[in-house]
Specification:
about 100 residues; mainly alpha; elongated; transmembrane; transmembrane helix; MYXO-CTERM domain-containing protein; signal
Length: about 100
């Protein structure tokens, strides 16, 4: 049980240090980009068709640096919270095992 917890924490720290998931680092399934071709608008014989004009791939909203910084900070908080929860579970399981061992004497 303890060895499994140590393995999980080691993998988590490796992900934090490198930013690469363990499955991708070990040759797991890779995510590939998918190209999408533009769709031709449908035309009807009955009348005109309204088509939305696009100017390029950069049309979407852009995140300002403060929003990106806040996203990074919240991600860090989530990671620290998960690590704290794992350590708490390890402590609780260790105390439970120690109490069972002492009561058996």
């Amino acid at each position: 049980m303890f060895a499994a917890c140590v393995a999980v924490l080691t993998a988590l720290l490796a992900v934090l240090a490198t930013g690469v998931s363990a499955s991708a680092a070990s040759g797991g399934p890779a995510v590939s980009a998918v190209s999408v071709s533009p769709v031709e608008p449908l035309t009807a014989a009955a009348g005109p068709v309204l088509v939305q004009e696009t100017t390029g791939p950069g049309d979407g909203p852009t995140l300002d640096p403060t929003t990106e910084a806040e996203a990074d900070q919240s991600k860090s908080k989530i990671i620290v919270g998960v690590i704290a929860a794992l350590l708490l579970v390890i402590v609780v399981l260790g105390r439970r095992a120690r109490n069972k061992k002492q009561s058996g004497k």
